[in-house]
Amino acid sequence: MLVHSAAAHFSRRTRYRQAYSNSSRPHRLKVVFLIGHVRDAKLQIDLEIENREHGDTLIGTFLDTYQNLTLKAVMGYRWAAENCKEAKLIIKMDDDVFFNAGKFFDTFWYKQQQKNPQGQQRSIFCNVWENAPVGRTGKWRVAKDLYANNIYHFPYCAGFFIIITTDLLAPMYKAAKTIDFFWIDDVFMYGMVPDFIGGIRFWQIGLKSRQITETYKLYKRSKEKHKISGCSYWAVLTDGDKLFDSEQNELIQYENSLKLKSGNQKGPLLN
Questions:
Q1: Is the distance from CB of 101 to CB of 121 less than 8 angstroms?
Q2: What distance in Å separates the CA atoms of residue 67 and residue 31, rounded to the nearest whole number?
Q3: What sign results for the dihedral spanned by CA atoms 151, 153, 159, 161?
Q4: pLDDT 10s digit of each residue in the chain, 271 long?
Q5: Do the beta carbons of residue 231 and residue 219 sit within 8 Å?
């Protein structure tokens, strides 16, 4: 799991370590946080202490800014291509996403293994956008001289949660160094780069597929209607703080109740 995290988000990284690091349900999850360089001396010292304690942060030489998210993504691909050759899948997510790992393995992973026991190849799973308009105002403003078309002529991923097959790590890293830089990381890394490589298949796990969503209200509505057990979503964008804690605590209580019912655990529920 390559997690894009802002330098100052120590509490969010702590939450992720508690929820996901080295988890095995039924497979081991390795979590690595991607962070940029900071100019604040105190913050830099705190980041160095954090890495000495946990050894799970990668700090780039670029500044930790929103405009440098593309560089952060490329850094993650380079590290994963060199160090994750035995991984089954690579998950890229932001540090404000709540991820139900158990449901992921029980549904998505199980179905993929049924379809292809050897694993998918050259595939990206995400909330896929097609023929998306190019923003000319606001947060994702793109000037005409940078990208002249009014729509992106290739599919790309909403970047909050993305799964890629490991055979794409090296090709995507190499391609990212080859083509012209584009500052919107979702469009560049999961649109322009795959389009340049060619032969990559996008699989929709968002929108009507209802497995991941950027809209917390949709997730909450589904969970209220179908309960945790029947809710089809296993990844949702949250505020990274109180909402994440609420969802994680509810999930822990639900999993503990299942253990009690099955007789695998006796005693009070965990806090």
A1: no
A2: 23
A3: positive
A4: 999 999 999 999 999 999 987 555 567 789 999 999 999 999 999 999 999 999 999 999 999 999 999 999 999 999 999 999 888 899 999 999 999 999 999 899 888 877 775 667 999 999 999 999 999 998 889 999 999 999 999 999 999 999 999 999 999 999 999 999 999 999 999 999 999 999 999 999 999 999 999 999 999 999 999 999 999 999 999 999 999 999 999 999 998 998 888 775 444 433 2
A5: yes
CA 140 – CA 146 distance, rounded (Å)? 12
Task: Give the phi and the psi of residue 84 in degrees, each rounded to 5.
Answer: -125, 40
The length of the chain, given as a count of residues:
271
Tell me the residue type at 194: P
CATH numbers and ranges of domains, the chain: 2-262 (3.90.550)
Total-model pTM: 0.92
**Structure token digits, residue 110:** 């199980």
Q: Looking at the chain, which runs of residues are DSSP E strands?
A: 2-4, 32-37, 57-63, 89-94, 97-99, 123-129, 156-165, 201-204, 212-213, 235-237
Residue 238 contacts residue 247 (beta carbons within 8 Å): yes
Contact 127, 158 (CB under 8 A): yes
Backbone Cα Rg of the chain: 19
